[in-house]
Amino acid sequence: MSGRRVLLVDDSDITRTVLARTLARADFEVLEARDGVEGAVVAFRERPDIVVTDLEMPVMGGYGLLRLLKGDPATEHIPVIVVTSHGEAPSRFWGLQTGADAYLTKDTAGSNLITVVERLAATPRRPPAAGEPPPKNALDVLGRVAMQLDDLLMRSTIAATMMERTVTAGTLPEACQRAAGVLAEVSGPAAIAFGIAENELVTIEVFPFAPLTQASAEDLSRKVLDRLLVTAGAAVEVQIRGEMNCSGPLRLESPFIFPLPLRDVSGVLGILPRNASEFEGTARPLVDALIRHVAMALDNARLAHRLRELSTRDGLTRLFNHRAIHERLGEELSRASRHNHSLSVVLCDLDHFKDVNDQHGHLAGDAVLSAAASRMRSALRTGDVIGRHGGEEFLIVLPETGLEAGQTAAERLRSALASSPVALPTGGSLTVTASFGVASQPECPQPARASCLLTLADTRLYAAKAAGRNCVRP
Predict the structure, then answer these.
(1) Cβ distance 67 to 98 under 8 Å?
(2) Contact at 8 Å (CB) between 51 and 4?
(3) 24 contacts: CB under 8 Å, gap ≥ 6
(4) Which of 334, 326, 392 is nearest to 364 (CA)?
(5) What is the pLDDT of residue 252?
(6) Domain with 198 in it: what CATH number?
(7) CB 394 within 8 A of CB 369
(8) pTM of the entire structure?
(9) For residues 150 and 49, is the Cβ–Cβ distance under 8 A?
(10) Among residues 257, 278, 309, which one ends one of the domains?
(11) pLDDT, tens digit, for every residue of 432-458?
(12) Around 228, how many Cα atoms within 13 Å sit in the side-chain half-sphere?
């Protein structure tokens, strides 16, 4: 004997005898079992190299045996071949879906069986992992099958819930929020974050489910961002979809990061657990099982989100357009008022931009606008927001930023713009500078209105131009 062992599981003595002789002639050692329960006991005890099983058998059939063997780390590496009298397509489909490595009908087995067994026996397999203690008798086997079915039913129910709740989401943030809600129900996290890097834009959505500080939420965002494949110079937009607790966070664990298999883009799911060991032991397997469904939900929402982006993004710079940046300013003002935070805005106007169009043409003007948007985007913090206010003018919203810090941020933007010449499509290059006006929420009567902030920033912008341009005025 070669030492290669095959377990035959079939309730027909005749079938077992015929197949055993066929395998023995090919130098295989044959073990036998009369039904799925007996087959499971032998498989766990003997760990054969191959299992060959019928489907219809008393006590427990081949489907149950397949699920049990493929669902246990100690036996999932063992190839299983179905040899049955059922040649119907549904039976073949379900057998292969349940975990069979090959499906043969009894009328075509013969030499085909030896060919398949030889192929599977020669295929390298990873070593078995430690699993539950092997079942000792029929009662143990049936109990384990019942537990496995319960687990499959629970996972199927969770997956169905995920799809039901996300299928009607019209935007990516809405899909993220609904997916986060389902994940929170099964994992009990402190926070969940989704990161998607698409072309020149990175979107990170953070959902707190426990008291977190702004710094804690931003730390989770950074860890998600670190695992994304990001294009150089891409804009990063972070949305925290929930209230922050500024009095102090819970004792935080390190986040668990899961790659999201999205189509054509880089995606990451980050989960910040309340208790890492509990999450690892109970919730993580469920999250692993849901990843594909989460990715499908977000992919569907991204298609709808792209349509919505056409109405919120400037086509040239890919920044928020005038309407969208004003909406974001309103949202951040409301957040700042609720939590008594400071907020600053910066108005930026490119210097002598009309001369660029007049002397070099509109293609050169477009190149300057795109380069200016990209450079300023890269110089902003995570959580800051920038939009094209109109023409060559940009509006930057700086949450949790006072007037002095806002002036520092504007100086950083000014330096980034003038750091190196911009290459022009018509040839040559051009140094780009801009003037900046900064205003802060405490300077306006409370509750501060966007119109007051913008008027102050606009007045200071004109003061910067009057002072010689390429400077900042607070």
Answers:
(1) yes
(2) no
(3) 30
(4) 392
(5) 59
(6) 3.30.450
(7) no
(8) 0.54
(9) no
(10) 309
(11) 999 999 999 989 988 878 999 999 999
(12) 32
